[in-house]
What does this fold into?
Amino acid sequence: MKQRLLFEGELSDPELDKVLPKLISKAIETEQDVYVRWNGVTLRVSSTDTVDMLMAKYNEQLIVNGMYDRLKAPIDGRDKHLYRIKNRLAEFYIVAHSFDEAANEMKKRLDKADYGFTSYRTVPGIDHLAVQHFYNDKQSFDDSEANLIIVGD
It folds into this structure.
C-alpha cells in the first residue's frame, strides 16, 4: 500500500486556481504526485502540470460528474450573499461570497477612500440578508430564507 498526499478544499478556502500552484510545488518538493479533492472532483497533481491544464481537467470533470459547467456559472460558481454591515460611520450593503470577504472588502474600500477615522472603519458585526444560489446552471430558490437575484451576473 502506498501513502499519498490528499488535500481537500473547504468552503472558506480560496479558489482552486489560487491553491494549485502550492500543490504543484508540493509535488515537486516531494517528488510524488499529490491529490486534491474539490467540489466532488479529485485531481492528480504532478510536478509537470500547469494551473491551466489542471483547471481544464477540473471543469471537464464537473461536467462529466453531472455538476454545472463552471465556465458558465456566475463567476466561480460559489453562492453570493447580501450582507449588511453597520459601524460608527454608516450602514453598508455588500454582495460577497463570505462574511470574511465582505468585511475585508468594506475595510479595504474605506481605507482607500480615507473615509472617517481609522478606528470607526472596524466591522463590529455582519448581518446575513439573502443568498443567490445556483445548481446545475439554474438558480435555486429557498422559501426558508431571502433569495438574492443579481442582474447582469
About this structure: The chain has two domains: 5-64, 80-140. The first strand starts at residue 5 and ends at 8. The radius of gyration is 19 Å. The helical segments are 16-30, 51-64, 99-113.
